[in-house]
Amino acid sequence: MQDKKGVLIVISGPSGAGKGTICKELLNRHNFYLSISATTRSPRIGEVEGVNYYFKTREEFLEKIEEGDFLEYAEVYGNLYGTPKSKVQSMIDEGKDVILEIDIQGALKVKENVSEGVFIFILPPSMEELKQRIIKRGSETEESLMTRFKSAYQEINYISKYNYAVVNDTVEEAVKKIESILVAENCRVDRMKEKILDSKEGLIHEQLYD
Ligand code: 5GP
């Protein structure tokens, strides 16, 4: 067990807002752990089992729900998605910051249980830009494209449930903002409670917490 637990960072936002690219860049720069979800969705071209998702049948997924394996799960666009609980917990206990890139329903469930998590909502620069990004991705059928676009409008209403909103004008700027958020979060006094302070800081520690 580490002196300081890792921070749970929950990143959501509508399809096409650029969550995936932002998370990838954060992982390139920092020693975070990105939780790999289970899903009943079919793999897209290039997606790899155990790297992008754990691809499950509906029956397998329902079994995992029964066994209490998920920190949260939700049905998104007709498919089930869930966050494996034990891996996330062990990473946090080891002091590693964990990123969950999950939908809004899932994020709200996590918030009920892990109020100390950091909840970040990624916004596209504009709705037109969002539409273009979803179209450009080209992995969606016409129907699922419309579903994703419509739900993006509804999802943005949930922004008030989050701690932070980050507009993804450019990936570089968005990543910088998230890095700043995490620096600030790690300076929060309530997160310092578990930090072992050196002898010089011990006095401050005592004054704060004894
Ligand atoms: P996609 O099918 O494009 O990979 O993901 C669709 C949506 O499901 C995205 O909004 C993504 O963030 C969300 N998602 C991915 N994994 C999980 C998960 O474990 N739980 C929940 N609630 N949503 C997830």
Main attributes of the structure:
alpha/beta, 210 residues, 4-stranded mixed sheet, binds guanosine-5'-monophosphate, single chain
Q: Gist?
A:
By secondary structure, this protein is of the alpha/beta class. The chain is built from 9 helices and 9 strands.
Structure description:
With about 210 residues, the protein is α/β, with parallel strands linked by helices. The protein is built from 9 helices and 9 strands. A 5-stranded parallel beta sheet has the order 2-7-1-8-9, with helices on both faces. Helix 1 packs across helix 7 and helix 5 packs antiparallel against helix 6. Bound molecules: guanosine-5'-monophosphate (5GP). The site of guanosine-5'-monophosphate has 14 residues, from strand 5, strand 6 and helix 4.
The percentage helix is: 40-55%
Largest sheet: 5 strands, parallel
Label the structural class: alpha/beta
Strand content: 15-25%
> What ligand species are in this complex?
guanosine-5'-monophosphate
Distance from N terminus to C terminus (CA atoms, Å) equals: 23 Å
Quaternary structure: single chain
- Strand-and-helix sequence, N→C? EHEEEHEEHEHEHHEHHH
Gross morphology: globular
- Return Rg in Å: 18 Å
The low-pLDDT segments are: none
